[in-house]
Amino acid sequence: MGNRQKMVFGNWKMNLNKKEAEILCNELNDGLAIADVKVGVFPSFPYVSQVAENANHFSIGVQNFYPQETGAFTGEVSITQVKDVGAELALIGHSERRSIFNETHSFLKKKVDASLVAGITPVFCCGEPFEVRNAGEERAYVLQQLEESLFHLDKRAIQKCVIAYEPVWAIGTGLTASTEQAEDMHSAIRSWIANQYDQECADSISILYGGSCNASNAKELFSCPNVDGGLIGGASLKSDSFLAIIHSF
Ligand code: PEP
């Protein structure tokens, strides 16, 4: 199994206001003191520095950034700016960024590179839409996402990344991949990394599952040999469900 770390990350998306973010952060501080799991949350931009300043036992990430250092990019935020206010992680390739904001494989590749240059951990999301799974083409689809945006990295660089497999049909839908479906894709991802790099490298990279993971199904999903934790959307917005997921290892 290698020495890979267990992780649970919460993607707050465009939810919570300042006060709610503060309350959730405090509740996580209280509930996390004993957890032997790397925990991270991804607040909306306005609250990133506030949460980063108050977080005691977890890391802060950003849901987005623009892969240029500085310049005339009105409305955009650079990875060094978010690092400056305490972020350590960045979501890259989330299906909502791919589908709503048309982020392409080559653009995501630039984001991966910019993030690594800044010393921020890329949390690279991949996963197939429903039609692709229905056609039985999910493996080829996910492999292409990895090949186009991640497999240009050398071994040292890819070992700094976290991968999140998030079947699009399971995100925010209440449908969860079965343990067989999750384990099947996670072990495929690990074997592609082993083919591209080597087994030691594949065994050191954490691969998280995302898609309607909650306090009731996390234990079963996290018991799969190749599932190293979860990327959680809806169930990360309340401390009781998020903490229950973290403690289900
Ligand atoms: C996500 O958006 O990354 C996600 C997994 O959402 P949810 O848990 O709500 O399906």
Short overview:
By secondary structure, the protein is α/β, with parallel strands linked by helices. It contains twelve helices and eight strands. β1 (7-11), α1 and β2 (38-42) form a beta-alpha-beta unit.
Overview of the structural elements:
The chain is built from twelve helices and eight strands. It is α/β, with parallel strands linked by helices and 249 residues long. It has one domain: Aldolase class I (TIM Barrel, Alpha-Beta Barrel). The chain has an eight-stranded parallel barrel with strand order 1-2-3-4-5-6-7-8, surrounded by five helices. Helix 2 (48-54) links the parallel strand 2 (38-42) and strand 3. Bound molecules: phosphoenolpyruvate. Phosphoenolpyruvate is lined by residues 11, 166, 171-172, 210-213, 231-235.
Distinctive features:
249 residues; globular; TIM Barrel; 14% strand
Strand order of the largest sheet: 1-2-3-4-5-6-7-8
Number of strands: 8
Oligomer: single chain
CATH architecture tag: Alpha-Beta Barrel
Which percent bin holds the helix content? 40-55%
Low-confidence stretches: none
Order of helices and strands: EHEHEHEHHEHHHEHHEHEH
Spell out which ligands are present: phosphoenolpyruvate
The fraction of residues assigned to DSSP E strands is 5-15%
> What characterizes the major β-sheet?
8 strands, parallel, barrel
Rg, rounded, reads 17 Å
